[in-house]
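Subject: for your reference before the review

Hello V.,

The reviewers asked for a structural picture of the protein, and I figured it would be easier to keep everything in one thread rather than splitting it across files. Below is the amino acid sequence we used in the manuscript, unchanged from the supplementary table.
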Amino acid sequence: MNKSGPFLSKTEILNAAEQTLRRYGPDKASVTDVAKLLGVSHGTLYRHFPSKAALREAVTERWLEEKIVAPLSETAGTVPENALEHLGKYLAELSELKYQYAAQDSEMFKMYAAVTEESAGLIEAHIGRILDQISMIINRGIEQQQITGNTDAAILARSVFYATARFHHPAHAYEWRSPEIRQQFRQLWTLLEQGLSPR
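And here is what came back from the structure prediction:
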């Protein structure tokens, strides 16, 4: 497929880059491989993305938005009767999504793990989106007097997020193969639930 550089859309480039990354893996895939798939020179791609790292970040950002943030946004946007149970459900879904993609989409998850170490800005923005959603759920719980209001919702959100990091941070992916991982999450959530409940 031969394309003229100016007519390449960002979506076309990201689709080709993701396909290439899945085929060769994030370590071996190159900008030249993406360019060959699109039928353009690698210089054409550099007019859209200044480096391989920038292209990897863009692919990872889209993957995180579609596979992690979008379904979590839907969960966060529901308004169940019990906000504390809702928070537990949200955190469990965050963990389950990470388990799922670590097992079933290993090349993209491997790239996400690598970008976590390489691109602080991208990961901070991703975490910020999740923290905003957790804060929204906690605020709702404080208003309903189902979650303690002794601490600011943003501080509680950050504390809960990092307390559960073992269950969603890619550095811990090797632990997720344990058959006990879900039970361990439930045990931790029981403690967090007790601490977040109004006295």
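For the response letter, the relevant points are probably these. Residues 52-77 form the longest helix (26 residues). The chain has a mean pLDDT of 91.

Happy to draft the paragraph if you're swamped.

O.
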